Amino acid sequence: MLSSSDFPIDQAIVAFAEFGVEATYVVMTENAVEKGIIDATRQVRTFLRARDIHDYGLQLQGEHRRIDLGVVLDDSVVPTKINLYKPPSKPDPRLWVLVNRGAAWSLPKYAGSGNLLAIFALPEGQLYLVNVSDETTFASRHVIGSPLHSLLTHKKSDEKAARVLAQLCEISRRGFIESAGNAPNSVGVLLEALLSIERNNRKTPDIDEEIEVKGSRISRTGRHSSKVVLFGEKPDWTISPMRAADVLNKYGYVGKGAHWRLANTQSATPNSQGMFLRVPDSERVVELVGRRLGSHAEVLFRWDLEVLEERLLEKHPKTYWVGAISRRTNVLNEEFHYVKAQFTRDPMVANLGPLIQAGKVVLELSFKRTITGGESNHGFNWRMDAVNRHLLFPPLIVHDLLLEEA
User: Which positions ≥6 away from 81 have C-beta within 8 Å?
Assistant: First the structure.
């Protein structure tokens, strides 16, 4: 549906991302122009639910809910309401932009068939609608003092985030700090310990279930040396043709200690085992597929894409991505100096599927069967290279921890 708009959706995403804002999008149809009624697509429903604005899943058939909406023009914001409802005789939820009695403004006058509308929210939850296809209105985002520019640059003060930043600055001022080892995750383990965060596998953020903290190694020029885990999520076993043990049997190999193992990265490009990720256009799923069986690739695991989007939102509503310079003190231990932190919030979940398809978000597997028959599964970790982070997380600000005033 979005592909039928008269404004390229990818350009709209980039335009909002410049301001660290995520929007959800709808395309005006002839019916929408005539009646002001728009289908609440899955993307719209996910956007509203993730921001605790409205949950269509809890709404009864025939139930209406009206909330405030600001319609953005090039020189003003028109206050009105949007009616979120489920028709009593149809399963598809709807949006209905209401018009105040006697108002000069109306949706049919504001947008035509094929126009791309963006719905976005301020941190406080107030909803706004803007016609991206209206060249004058949308170009006003770059005009300082215009309604759209003012809304997109609005930032809510965040005392908890400021408190965590002060702690990170204090840690940075300590210089190099010795870790208890030199494993790949030592940089994150030490940072969590310094912040008094207990080791965990929670799906929610580390601090007050609100702020996640991720540590990674960087070079002295600031380049991150490895992909960082976004979240962990196992396949949906109800729709997956195979189990982990089956895949280990078929695609595993003899590893260190003569153990049978499978430890590799899955991306959109086939790896040495012939395994790769794909996102079928006709379905809201992600598939891990293996070697071809005739003209078809063998499907190993499946994930519901909406579940992956929800995990991303759960884990990263607000995140500090902390970079540390490392040095070795001996063959066993490593020291870290935490020097940089990037703060992000509200990941652009609509980009997750396309980024998996493009190979920017990857999956790491680590299965093992010992020579005595014992099996271990270290999870299904979805990772992303820091250089591509801006495609999923609108960057708000980068902090030099040594120079930051705490």
Answer: 66, 67, 68, 69, 98
Q: Where are the beta strands (DSSP E) in 244-346?
A: 253-254, 260-266, 276-278, 285-293, 296-304, 318-328, 334-345
Measure the CA–CA gap between 178 and 14, rounded to whole angstroms. Answer: 41
Rounded to whole angstroms, the Cα distance separating 93 from 59 reads 9
Helix (H, G, I), strand (E, B) or coil at 372: coil
Q: What is the structure's pLDDT at 406?
A: 47
In this structure, are residues 262 and 272 in contact, taking their beta carbons and an 8 Å threshold? Answer: no
For residue 160, the one-letter residue type is: K
- Within 36-185, where are the H helices? 42-50, 107-110, 135-139, 147-152, 159-173
Q: What does the pLDDT read at residue 2?
A: 73
- Dihedral pair phi/psi, residue 86, rounded to 5°: -115, 120
Decide: helix, strand or coil at residue 397: strand
CA distances to 51, 204, 205, 247 from 313, rounded to whole Å, are 10, 9, 10, 29
- Mean pLDDT, 10 residues at a time, over the chain (406 residues)? 82 84 88 84 86 87 89 90 86 80 71 92 87 94 91 78 93 93 87 90 86 89 73 94 89 75 89 90 86 77 94 93 89 89 87 90 87 71 90 79 70
CA nearest neighbour of 207 among 170, 173, 159, 171: 159
Q: Strand, helix or coil at 295?
A: coil
- Which neighbouring-strand residues pair with 318? 345
Q: What is the pLDDT of residue 156?
A: 61
- The CA-CA-CA angle for residues 252, 256, 262, to 5°, reads 20
- Name the E strands within 73-173: 77-85, 94-97, 116-121, 127-131
For the record, the structure tokens of 84 come out as 């979120």
